[in-house]
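User: I'm preparing a small set of examples for a lab meeting where we compare how different chains pack in three dimensions. I only have the primary sequence for this one, and I'd like the structure in token form so I can line it up with the others. Please keep the answer compact; I'll paste it straight into my notes.
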Amino acid sequence: MQWYVDQKAAFQGDGSKERPFTKIQDAASIAKPGDEVLVAPGIYREYVDPKCPGTEDARIVYRSMEKLGAVITGAEVLEGWKQENGLWTVSVDNSIFGNYNPYTTYVYGDWYFAGKTKHTGAVFLNGRMLYEAMSVDACRKAEKSETSWVPEESVYQWYAEQSEDGAKTIFWCNFQDADPNQENVEFMVRRECFMPSRTGIGYITVSGFKVDKAATTWAPPAAYQDCMIGPHWSKGWIIEDCEISNSKCAGIGLGKYYDPDNDHYFTTKHVKSPTQMERDAVCRGQYHGWLKENVGSHIVRRCNIHHCEQGGIIGRMGGVFSLIEDNHIHHINNMMELGGAEIAGIKMHAAIDVVMRRNHIHHCTMGIWCDWEAQGTRISGNLLHDNQRPEFAKQLKGGMSCQDIFVEVSHGPTLIDNNILLSDVSFRFATQGVAMVHNLMCGAFSYVGEGTGDRYTPYHIPHRTEVMGFMTFLHGDNRFYNNIFIQKWPDEELVVRSDSSEVQWTENRRAGTHVFDEYPTYEEWIAQFDMDTSEPDMMKLEPAHRGHLPVWSEGNAYFNGAAMFRAEKNGKVDTEHTVDAVVEQTADGWKLKSEVFDFLDGISCRMIDSDTLGKAFEPEERYENPDGTPIRFDTDFLGKHRAVKVVPGPFADPDSCLRMTEA
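Assistant: Understood. Below is the structure token output for the 663-residue chain.
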């Protein structure tokens, strides 16, 4: 059955092609498995709440009839502005908000560090989100933000307050030289755009829509995670060919259900640590159907996700077994109004058997952040660059450090292969059980052996969600094969990277595997355990059980002063040539330019596969595909075949990239 929707229809119809519905929700209320909802171009100012799930064999498909022609927005037009004391002002009746007023609701919650000062709503001028001022006077003054990545835009500001009787929201805006009565001014009204209000509404496809401007709330791991569009704890969604932008917090959500006994528990009750509540969330999830048969296995592909202020894609547990591919994710958290530990282009908790491949991620506070249980996670063939705070921008109070990839407090196996990582920090290693194979990296490794504290996190039955155990972090258990390291940035080993007196950290700035010099090789590690005796002494072995796990490093190439692991095998340090690696946006797309591929002749590596990588220590799970089949790294970044001669880096041979390669 096909249902038709056209916002421009003269009158409300019955959903037929001749008499279409005028709202998407009319179709979403009656669509059944196998149905297709065809939406004509137009702006749909509504919240779409699908009522019925599809099935694995009969999905419910929502399709924009013209790609990106149908816009689902959480905003309304704001008209009738008047000038008063140097600002523009207008008021709206609070009845428009229903039971959720974004201008009395603050962004706050567990792992939010920037203070309870910003509301979940916002005002837009010609599609650009304005900055929130703290008072009418501050709005009038409209000083540039010292933390914004785009300070020239930060002088466009808004402020909202409630009328004395509480019936209206009064807006004050500084539009600079713009006349809002001559421009397009919108304000966020709805909390979500396309998301079931109930869990279990699975097997839905959303294709070709623009989704924007929702007053989403902060989405930490042990709380309900809302977003502009997402499956809300169900199985088998496909979100494809969409443009997702201008969420106050999260764009796409693959995350957690609402659990009243574990929702922002630390923030509201204080008596248990937020980390403990995350552990509780994992275990409570089993009682809420967190099984491979019920949750996850989503696909997010070919989407343009940008200008969201918490994350492009977020998710706690609900995104397991998913595929995130061919997306362009950029300009996330650039306004620097929000700060906390849940901010990235992709931020996933428990990305079990999640594959992230061929994504282009740039100008984000962090590129990809896999937090807890990155077990079976594979990050492959992605291009990441410019995921770093500009030098002119000060560190936001509560803001995060920047890097291309951050894996935190996981036991692995986490596989990172054939990526191009060009930001000043390539990888933050507050974790163990990582394999990096055939990557090109211009940044350093930071937080090696740090950042885990006394936390202990779960690991799972391989390729399942059922918890197998919990463990603290010994660090190590990492593998580095056939990578290229380029010292592109100043090579001081330790540099203070924060200019805030309240937030300080140091991080390694020297590229390469040298940061693991204190870690044992496998031979050094296994020798501690007296493997030749059948009656081991537990007390004697206790120090070994608490010590660092081994590191493997082989076939890597190092340029510009990048330093290699003390026990590197078949590695090469090139001291003769100076190389660079940059990406440029051209009329034909993004291009990678580097001289490094001219200097790989004479460097030969062996073909790497799952047998080479072995098993991650704690879960005893192989580095393999989600279906348990082995991986052979015989395909490069461009999809070309690696043959007999294997060279370091993400390209099969030096000639396959030359100096300009489409990324």
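A couple of notes for your slides: The first helix runs from residue 24 to 28. The chain has seven helices and 51 strands.

User: Perfect, thanks.
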